[in-house]
Amino acid sequence: MNGDSWGQVREELLKSIGKNNFAAWIEPLRLTGLQDGIARIETPTRFMRDWVSRNFSEQIRRHFESAGERVERVEFVVSSAASARPAGSGAPQPVQAADNASDASNRRAASDADLPGAPLDPRLTFETFVVGKPNELAHAAARRVAEGGPVSFNPLFLYGGVGLGKTHLMHAIANEMSVRRPEARVLYLSAEQFMYRFVQALRERQIMDFKEMFRSVDVLMVDDVQFIAGKDSTQEEFFHTFNALVDQGKQIVISADRAPGEIKDLEERIKSRLQWGLVVDLHPTDYELRLGILQQKVESHRAQYPDLSIAPGVLEFLAQRITTNVRVLEGALTRLFAFATLVGREITLEMAQDCLADILRASDRKITVEDIQRKVAEHYGIRLSDLVGPKRSRTIARPRQVAMYLAKTLTTRSLPDIGRRFGGRDHTTILHGIRKVEELIASDSQLAEDVDLLRRLLDR
Ligand SMILES: Nc1ncnc2c1ncn2[C@@H]1O[C@H](COP(=O)(O)OP(=O)(O)OP(=O)(O)O)[C@@H](O)[C@H]1O
């Protein structure tokens, strides 16, 4: 089996379908065999198998061929580790790939034609950026820079973990500027592209043109600057470009995955230059921000999926459970939209759990049923022994149902398993309790608030 060709196939797919679709569909796949003209690929769920084989099979085959492998057929099998439950019901209908691929190259926004920057994605604007506590400072600083005026933070240095919105904010600045100051020469590119241009200029003996071009911009934005660490001549050139622009009072915006001082193999003088201006970080998202992002994404996809209907509690569930990064969250939603078009009816919590089983497993947060019971009992002022005991009075039965609901939505325990932890109740009793709470969340705002509060308390 040739791992390299699979690596190449993945790279090509990443380029052609964009980071988000890649994370949603390709990242979870595993190549398990490449023999006799057949590529065998494992998918984590049945739903994924159906979707990927319908939408990506031919592309995968072609990329294998380009990578020098003879592949006549791509076979998809569900990983044996995956749950045996069928994903949703009803015969899958042929569907179009949900195209919210960030194939930015097709969406080139107005940017100076003679500048060798990366294309801007017009969807990445301030309007589509959801602001919450973890990113409010970065957002405010980015806005200030985009509004222009006296260059007050130079450079603006944005840093944070994977998929927390650095690239989004940079595109937003560039998009906003192209509206406010259409005459300004804004150059956005990744540090990798900077290096590539530089090496090319050296090779073609056009280094003067290179310098001139980079020094002629009004705003320079370099994404993922950590990439130039350890690349000596590129660092050197970057340093000179940086100084020349700052001297001319031109704005610079830089992003990286960590703070300047923490980038290994970056020259000291560059580290210190990068800290001249304003250094702000994007913190990991919190529950509110994740929920806000999900709600915004659902709204913005209404036109594309007019019949989309998502049961109350599903988005809250995703916001609670998928805490890794926004890209994974978006990937989950992309898959859910695709799923909705397949099943053609409201997406319930159970369907979401099936369809996203692999993502949920990967970001499993270790809240236990016992933690939930304790918090719920405390919140309602009842005894833990009563919560799991046989009493049926309303003041106890309702909190018990809330605890059942939270146990189902915050852990990966099965219904029989939850039943055992609630004093040996039958799984149908648990299911009934969950359904009841789902109903009440939609009709009883006090109870909805209680559930929300409990979620947050347990999220800590
Ligand atoms: N606050 C937010 N509001 C709306 N969308 C967001 C927000 N934060 C991130 N996203 C979305 O999440 C995805 C990942 O964000 P982005 O590409 O900006 O991450 P990044 O920090 O640059 O990560 P990386 O270092 O992996 O490139 C994008 O599709 C982006 O639009």
UniProtKB/TrEMBL annotation:
Which part of the chain is the AAA+ ATPase domain?
Answer: 152-282
Query: Chromosomal replication initiator DnaA C-terminal domain spans which residues?
Result: 368-437
Using the UniProt annotation, give all residue ranges assigned to the region (Domain IV, binds dsDNA).
341-460
Checking Pfam families in the record gives: Bac_DnaA, Bac_DnaA_C, DnaA_N
Region described as Domain I, interacts with DnaA modulators: spans on this chain:
1-82
Places the protein is found: Cytoplasm
Its subunit composition reads: Oligomerizes as a right-handed, spiral filament on DNA at oriC.
Q: What is known of its domains?
A: Domain I is involved in oligomerization and binding regulators, domain II is flexibile and of varying length in different bacteria, domain III forms the AAA+ region, while domain IV binds dsDNA.
| Protein name (Swiss-Prot/TrEMBL) | Chromosomal replication initiator protein DnaA
Originating species:
Albidovulum inexpectatum
